[in-house]
Amino acid sequence: MAVFANRRLWIAVLAALALAFPLLVTNSYYLHIMTISFIWMIAVYGLNLFAGYTGYLSLAHAGFFAMGAYALGILTVKVGVPFWLAFVLACLFTTLLGAVIGLVALRTKEHFFAIYTLCVGYIIYLVIDKWDSLTGGVRGFIGIPAPADIGPLSFQTPVAQYYLVLFFLFAVIFVMYRLVYSLTGRTYIAIRNSEELALTLGISTMKNKLASFVLSVFFTSLAGALYASFIRFLGPDIAYISVMFDFLTYLLVGGIGTLAGPVVGTLLVTFLSQQLQFLQDYRMLIFGPILTLLIIFYPHGIAGGFIRYQAKRKEARRLEPEANRAAAELAVSSQGRGERHAEEG
């Protein structure tokens, strides 16, 4: 109970710090970096839901991120749809296309699924890069409007956009929390641990995998739409494999299959990237070996390793009285045997 209370306390403290960040740090550059980090977190939560809790690694999520962003840009700039309607339609369109892709992709398993989704992600990148008349191609897509006002709420300033993105991040974390600790979340974990055993228990693995995949695509497309409304300029690079590598880095460093992993990993890697900007040209050479070593020697990430450490301490405290009692009984027994030997002698 104390551990749960401490966890809730830490969550409250971190949420309060996030809310107070614009008041504590007035530098607009750091505010920009934090807003972008929150957007990455939402995308990584989408990846974590499917890869971390269902056990299937999708390498197409950078493509879905880009689709959400470009769909918002095209609907608002070229079609003239009002912002918030375009925002909803962009997420729904990407999610629907993700469901169609998932129906085909989920007929494969393990590394075949990863290869298939990698190909899908690259196809999305090629479509964005080559379809100049629709996406602007390598010239990029400009003129995306900022989020429209909702009644008295205006989102034209960086601080207001920060709180808007933070609101969506809190909503995604809340949905993830309720999902993971529900029967549906337990079902996803059962599929991750052993799909064959889940089938024998009567679980519809295809239905649950598709539901997890579709929801993960929705989270990622939501992050893409927020990215487009915040940056207001898009290029095909946001669909490239390097963005997918970033998502995986954030997730694996933080801890795959944990609720805190996307937050911890994204903040840590983003902070390190900002400190090592002078090595930007060698970024892949630096983070590639680090990520490889992390997977080999610390596969559960920072949050996952901390959770396992807490579990071991809890188990050790639970077993300590039994061990002390057994040691006391052994000491008494040894003393009794020693006294008997002394009497016989």
Keywords:
single chain; 345 residues; globular
Structural write-up:
The chain has 345 residues and is an all-alpha fold. It has a single domain (23-299), classed as ABC transporter involved in vitamin B12 uptake, BtuC. Helices cover 79% and strands 1% of the residues. It has 14 helices and two strands; from the N terminus they run ααααααβααααβαααα. Strands 1-2 form a two-stranded antiparallel sheet. The protein is globular and about 90 Å long. 35% of the residues are buried. Residues 1-5 have low confidence and may be disordered.
CATH topology: ABC transporter involved in vitamin B12 uptake, BtuC
What's the end-to-end separation, in Å? Answer: 55 Å
Using only C-alpha atoms, the radius of gyration works out to: 25 Å
- Proportion in helices: over 70%
CATH class: Mainly Alpha
Overall structural class, as computed from helix and strand content, comes to: mainly alpha
- Tell me the series of helices and strands, N- to C-terminal: HHHHHHEHHHHEHHHH
Q: How many β strands by DSSP?
A: 2
Number of contiguous helices: 14
Please outline the major beta sheet. 2 strands, antiparallel
Spatial shape: globular
Would you identify the regions where 5 or more consecutive residues have pLDDT less than 50? 1-5
Strand content is under 5%
The second-level CATH architecture is Orthogonal Bundle
Write the layout of secondary structure elements.
Layout: H1 2-24, H2 28-53, H3 61-79, H4 83-105, H5 110-130, H6 132-135, E1 141-142, H7 158-180, H8 183-193, H9 195-200, H10 205-231, E2 233-234, H11 241-254, H12 261-275, H13 283-297, H14 301-344
Antiparallel strand pairs: 1-2
Helix pairs in contact: 2-7, 2-10, 2-11, 2-12, 3-4, 3-5, 3-10, 4-10, 8-10, 11-12, 11-14
